Amino acid sequence: MRTSVTYPLKHPKRFKKQLLFWAQQFDNVVWIDSNDHKDKYSQYDAILAVDALTSLRTDYDNAFNSLNEYQQSTQDWIFGYLTYDLKNTIEDLKSNNFDGIKLPDIYFFQPKKLFLVKDGQVEIKYLKMVDDEIEDDLRTIELSNNQKSGPLANGIKIKLRIHKDEYFEKVSTMLAHIQRGDIYEANFCQEFYAEHSTINTVETFNKLNEISQPPFATFLKCDDKYLLSASPERYITKDGNIVISQPIKGTAKRSTDKEEDQRLAKALSIDEKERSENIMIVDLVRNDLSHTAEKGSVKVEELCKVYSFLQVHQMISTITSRVSKAVKPVEILKTTFPMGSMTGAPKISAMKIIEELEETKRGLYSGSVGYFAPNGDFDFNVVIRSILYNAKQNYISYSVGSAITSKSDPLKEYEECLVKAKAMREVLES
Asked: What is the pLDDT of residue 273?
């Protein structure tokens, strides 16, 4: 049983920064921040989970069965991630590309200490608590001043894993696959990286979060490996017997000129190529959800709606389904993973072609971070707009991609990737 207490917060934003700073003493950290986006499907404004009591860490082989056993036996809050390469346990696929981050394929932990921030309050839930531990921790958190513990990034030299001309060649190869009918759409990604480089992880995350302010910001620490994510995308959530998926397909840049910015958003909403990308993925998600849904319950609640974030406009659709109590939570993840917005259609063919053309193992990029509640509800994001960091190897990585369809122009796809990469590059190079 967890000891649970609730406290009002005088300064929620300041408390959140202090809480993340305080969390750095632990080897296992998951921080999720909605940045005050009023999402009707979210349960909390922010969550911090730290200090593993138990954990699951393994490669892709039999990973979902292992996760199901762990989730069912724990019946508690568990937090962690799913890497893109779990595709290899679902289908006969491989991941042989270069990997500079080297995270386990799947990792979840049961936190001893859990903070749930909502509506100006923090609910604190501790396992195996000693006397006055919560009060002592709160005093320490309040004294945390978020002082810088080292340099931010300052002039890190970013390299391209795939150079521009090679990118055009690879997109042309993918277009040839589409013309032959092998696939209709595929998300093609490229890595930007830095070697022999170090960053202050908390300061870098705070800066990335500040300039993006996305609804699914995530700071993850797994020993000496980090994820600093400004993700705008939800992969999937379960609330009672309702499952919701919200794929993003379609991106346009923002403008500081209000009228031009409105024109850019309007142009995205009616763009034939962007809408066709989104609708193809909606069809894929509908099919994925149908594997666990009650008959006739899969519905498209919102189609191709444009949402505006600080860096970009995004086209988002919302698909829901209803599941019976007999369906295990992990089964819903297994039958929908990897998410359609990061793969393509048909999904298996797209993933095979992606593996052939990309140069980097995706790992946690285009995977997911999230949590299970004790009642089996869950919420998971899509790991995009993110910096990955291996502190031991001094290796920094961020990847971006775009959906390639028959209507794709390689130059425009490349420019879309640069728009998506802007925030990460700005944070690392400034």
From this structure: 92
